[in-house]
Amino acid sequence: MNTLIKVIRTEQMKLKRSPVWIAFLTLPAISAFFGTFNYLNNLDLLKSEWFSLWSQHSLFLCYFFMPALIGTYCSCLWRLEHTRHNWHSFLTAPVPRLTLYLGKLFHAVLMTVLSSVWIFTLFYVCGRLCGIQAPFPAAASEWFVCGIAGGTAICCVQLYISLMIRSFALPVGIALAGGIGGLFMTSKGFGLYYPYSLYSMGMRANNPQREIDLVSFCVNSAAYIVVFAGLSVFYLHKHEMAAG
Amino acid sequence: MKTLKMEFYKIKRRKTGLTLGAMTAVQFLWCVWAFRGPDEYERLQGWLGTLYSMPLLNSIMMPTIMAVLASRLADIEHKGNTYKQLRTLRNAGTLFNAKVLCGLLFILMMYAAQLLFLILLGHSLHYEGRPDMGLYLRYLFLSIACTFALYLLQLTLSMLFFNQMIPLVTGLCGSMLGLILMYLYNWNLRSLFPWGGYIATMFVGADWNPQTRIMTYYLMETSENGLLSHGFIFLWAAVFYITGRWLFTRREA
To answer: Residue B209, exposed/middle/buried by CB under 10 A (0-12, 13-18, 19+)?
Structure first.
């Protein structure tokens, strides 16, 4: 446990002064601004107050851009390791590979949690500014928790992809393509089985009244987390020979 | 010419073409899914409908694809720390031009593939008649211009920042803005953003009838605002090229 905390602190030092906050602040803010604008322009059609506003805020962000945003975080986490000969120092640290990986995963999930907190903060503030008087929906806490579970699954997939691919940009492109594919899978009814749509399903993007099978959702998210975390740790063991 | 050739040597075996091909394939798969199983009425106006849908799809995907392309071409210099060495061999402006041309060739290839795919898809779905090549070439020209302007912006950012997060996030924000601008009916506002060019220069409109649930496509006349939108694309391209080249040549190696 002590080693894990040290690894987490090391990762934190690597991220120091990294412009992660730009991604974290801007994308949800653009979505919230235009979502609110669209909500206010269609008040005659959108009558469900908080739920209507949520559909406008979350539609594009959760389907297309959160997977890409998580992809950016994950690329950022592996970038230093992929630069020059840093794999040597990373892999020769007297720490188990699993712990090294968990350090990365912790920060990827932390940034996903912070992004989600920011999304909900914007949602609340915009709702109040729009003059919605009804109490904040209690169901939002469930959306948040499910969103984090789905987001963690995407983190594991993207960490694996960014680990294998040295390029910063390519995994982000894959994540965007994955998000677009998620829209297709959700429309076909396979959203719960496809990692990139788990976040939008969990957050009930575009449809706050949607019922999802929570057991399947949790099992599938956990399965993606375990499988891709396992693949990453396995790759880290293999990577030792290819370092440099 | 030599510098351009060197650019292609640098990206040899880096699978840049494959990367762009894969991302374009996602667009194609989307088209196959979105246009599948047309009825008689949809076949009748299929060729026009395609010209309505493609700018929307481009405005979602192209900003990010351009961010990826620019980052792939620029990141190799950051990782190898090659600026100083290269600038002893070549003029900085020539280097920038070579990267611009290299990217432009990729863009042209992508759109050539897109045109070919759209024609093949239309024929395989038995669209009525033949595609109006004048309209298709107009679409191609405007889309290439928009994409090129975005590429110039992304290339400048990717060359200036070691951390590729900034250009990538700009690309993602651009994709999101492009998507959101579709829902704004203020055409002037769309033209003001370089990412809104695809939508602002659309020349095929659609009427949705909620009763019959039928979409009817029609050719829009180019208004003064429309011409302004066309002008903005070239203005953005010129601004990004001049600023990018200026910043790059003054950059500390």
So the answer is: exposed
B159 touches chain A (CB under 8 A): no
Cβ–Cβ under 8 Å, residues A203 and A192: no
Task: Write the CB contacts of A4 (distance below 8 Å, at least 6 apart in sequence).
Answer: A99, A102, A103
A84 neighbourhood in chain B, CB within 8 Å: 79
B119, with CB counted inside 10 A (0-12, 13-18, 19+), is: middle
pLDDT, tens only, A218-235: 999 999 999 999 999 999
**d(C-alpha A40, C-alpha B145), whole Å:** 34
| Residues B155, B166: Cα–Cα separation, whole Å | 12
pLDDT reading at B120 higher than 60: yes
> In chain B, where does DSSP find H-type helix?
2-10, 16-34, 40-44, 46-80, 83-89, 92-124, 133-160, 165-181, 187-192, 197-200, 224-249
> With contact defined as beta carbons under 8 Å apart, do B54 and B131 qualify?
no
Q: State the total domains in chain A.
A: 1
Residue of B nearest to A24 (CA): B169
CA within 13 Å, CB half, A208: 19
- Residue numbers of the domain that contains A199: 2-242
Checking phi first, is residue B130 left (phi over 0); if not, alpha (psi -120 to 50) or beta? Answer: beta
User: Please, how many CA atoms are within 13 Å of residue B75, restricted to the half-sphere of its CB?
Assistant: 24
Of B26, B168, B184, the CB nearest to A169: B168
State how far the Cα of A109 lies from the Cα of A192, in Å rounded to an integer: 20
The pLDDT value recorded for residue A240 is 60
**Cβ–Cβ contacts within 10 Å for residue A231, how many?**
16
- Residue B218's identity, in one-letter code, is Y
> Is residue A182 within 8 Å of residue A200, measured between CB atoms?
yes
pLDDT tens across A66-125, in order?
898 899 899 989 988 887 778 888 888 888 999 999 999 999 999 999 999 999 999 999
Classify residue B95 by burial, with Cβ atoms within 10 Å: 0-12, 13-18, 19+: buried
Q: Given the cut 0.85, state whether the ipTM is greater than it.
A: no
CA dist., res. B165 & res. B155, Å (int):
13
| Closest alpha carbon within chain A to B167 | A169
Q: Would you call B165 and A60 a contact, using CB atoms and an 8 Å cutoff? A: no
Q: Which residue has the tokens 């650019």?
A: B7
Residue B178 identity (one-letter amino acid): G
Cα–Cα distance for residue pair B85/B157, rounded to 1 Å: 21
Residue pair B183/B224 in contact by the 8 Å Cβ criterion = no
Indicate the DSSP class of residue B184.
-
- CA distance linking residue A142 with residue A107, whole number of Å: 22
